[in-house]
Amino acid sequence: MAQMTISAPVSELAWGALALGVTALVFWGAAWSYPQGREDIWLVGAATMVVIGALCARDAWRVRDE
User: Fold this and answer.
1) Which of 5, 17, 19, 37 is the most exposed place for a label (fewest CB within 10 A)?
2) Mean pLDDT of 29-36
3) pLDDT value at position 20?
4) In terms of Cα–Cα distance, which of 15, 26, 27 is closest to 55?
5) Where are the alpha helices (DSSP H) in the chain?
6) What is the DSSP code (8-state) at residue 63?
7) How far apart (Å, rounded) are the C-alpha atoms in residues 40 and 48?
8) Reduced to 3 states, what is the DSSP secondary structure of residue 21?
9) Buried-exposed string 36-47: b where 16+ CB fall within 10 A, e elsewhere
């Protein structure tokens, strides 16, 4: 059988998408469990997801030539 290979940048982007999804679920659960702080929780969650996206893009950029 042929073994499937994925390029390093695609792999990094896939891990980043997974990280964004898990982060969104964590903040969704936090906002659901504490409705009084929903806006603040989502504000921090949005900032966190922007940072995760930027770090993912940086990692994908670093491995593009490997």
Assistant:
1) 5
2) 96
3) 95
4) 15
5) 8-33, 38-62
6) T
7) 12
8) helix
9) eeeeebeeebee
The structure tokens listed for 15 are: 């891990």
- Cα angle, residue 15 at apex, residues 58 and 64 outer, rounded to 5°: 40
- Give the chain's mean pLDDT: 91
Terminus-to-terminus CA distance in the chain, angstroms?
25
Q: Which residue has the tokens 């504490």?
A: 34
> Encoding tokens for residue 63?
């491995």
CA distances from 4 to 1, 7, 60 (A): 9, 10, 19
Given a contact cutoff of 8 angstroms between Cβ atoms, the answer to whether 13 and 60 are in contact is yes
Residues 36-47: pLDDT tens digits?
999 999 999 999
